[in-house]
Design brief:
The strands form 2 sheets. The chain has a 5-stranded parallel sheet with strand order 2-1-3-6-7, with helices on both faces. Strands 4-5 form a two-stranded antiparallel ribbon. The protein is an alpha/beta fold and 348 residues long. It has 3 domains: 43 residues, no CATH class; 172 residues, Rossmann fold (3-Layer(aba) Sandwich); 114 residues, Cytochrome-c3 Hydrogenase, Chain A, domain 2. The chain starts with 9 loop residues before the first helix and ends in a 16-residue tail after the last helix. Helix 1 packs across helix 2 and helix 3 crosses helix 9. 32% of the residues lie in helices and 7% in strands. It binds iron/sulfur cluster. Iron/sulfur cluster (SF4) binds next to helix 11.
Length: 348
């Protein structure tokens, strides 16, 4: 019996496998296959999870999932050897675990947080610059997954003084899987890891390195406020209750420029997400986040050919203008080809 089943019941395990199959868009007939792969202890790959310039938010997002506790199962299945926030060991014991894992073939490398490139004093881990460790661990990694906006593209630290970069840019590689958003969504991380376990390769990614199974559509296309956008109802006054559920575009919503399945998947076990709780999309799944998206609550991206400020006022013409905004928004993100709006990101 697998060690896994000493912690959870078989029923719970199969429930999680069924959930994972749905997450990956697989038929339920694949549940048995997923169960076999996940339960095969001998096949579980060692995982090294490094943290650089981060807030540990992606870790919290990952271990905070409760229904179902897929992350717990995955943590058992993947044999997490090194993770500064969750491991019990510290100091030389922890670094020894890292050195031992580096002797094995095919480990998975997960990076949370960005890598500073200016001045060696920034982000020292175990007495070494973080970037040195990233390079060393990347050498023999079977797969490299950058979790969160910081590891993917630099994120908030990328707007600061440390010259912070994402993993792909830092290593100069185009085979890094980017699970962007701030923080990374637990289901995006679990789905990517399980895909790798099932198929022995990375899932299909878009031109920004993001798995298409999670980052294929614009936030805007699945937004519950989309109807208000098309009616020309744009919130301009936070204190006006009549405008409470109106489109947040004029308040800086980056949904028309941002690819992620947040409106469908939501956060905190499907409880809510940014736009639904009135905050507007911040564009955290895109490479331009943070500097290119700030100030977050102001419209920062001018859309060529459309005077967006007048749209909310000119209600008589808003439907056409709104659609123009949408398609021009797609053009602005490089997704709109000559033949019209595509279904998703460009494939590599
Ligand atoms: Fe939703 Fe933002 Fe698009 Fe408005 S602009 S419909 S709030 S995603």
């Amino acid at each position: 019996m697998s060690e896994l089943f000493t912690r959870i019941s078989r029923k719970e395990f199969l429930k999680a496998c069924a959930y994972t199959a749905a997450l990956l868009g697989l038929e339920q007939s694949k549940v048995d296959h997923i169960a076999k792969v996940l339960a095969k202890a001998a096949a579980k790959p060692p995982v090294i999870w490094l943290e650089g310039q981060d807030c540990a938010g992606c870790t919290i997002s990952f271990i905070g999932s409760t229904a179902p506790s897929v992350s717990e199962i995955i943590l058992d299945v993947i044999s997490l050897r090194y993770h500064e926030t969750v491991m019990a060991g510290a100091g030389r014991v922890a670094e020894g675990a890292l050195e031992e894992t580096l002797k094995e073939e095919g480990y998975v490398m997960i990076v949370e947080g960005s890598i500073p490139t200016k001045d060696g004093r920034f982000c020292m881990v175990a007495g070494k610059p973080f970037g040195e460790t990233v390079k060393k661990v990347a050498e023999k990694a079977g797969a490299i997954i950058a979790v969160g906006a910081c590891a993917a593209y630099g994120g908030i630290p990328g707007a600061g003084p440390t010259g912070a970069k994402g993993v792909a840019e830092y290593l100069g590689r185009d085979d890094i899987i980017n699970i962007s958003t701030c923080p990374a969504h637990v289901e995006h991380v679990v789905g990517t890891v399980v895909y790798y376990l099932l198929y022995g390769k990375a899932p299909e990614i878009d031109k920004e390195g993001r798995p298409l199974m999670f980052f294929r559509t614009l936030i805007h296309d699945n937004c519950p406020r989309r109807g208000q956008f098309e009616k020309g109802n744009y919130l301009t006054d936070w204190n006006n209750l009549e405008e409470r559920d109106w489109c947040l575009y004029l308040k800086g919503c980056k949904g028309p420029f941002t690819y992620s399945d947040c409106p469908i998947r939501k956060w905190n076990d499907g409880t809510n997400w940014c736009v639904e709780c009135g905050a507007g999309c911040q564009g955290c799944a895109e490479p331009a986040f943070y500097a290119g998206m700030s100030p977050l609550f102001e419209k920062t991206q001018e859309i060529k050919g459309v005077d967006v400020d007048t749209i909310g006022k000119a209600l008589g013409v808003v439907v056409g203008a709104g659609l123009a905004v949408h398609f021009i928004g797609q053009a602005a993100t490089g997704r709109l080809g000559k033949g019209g709006p595509p279904e998703g990101g460009e494939k590599k």
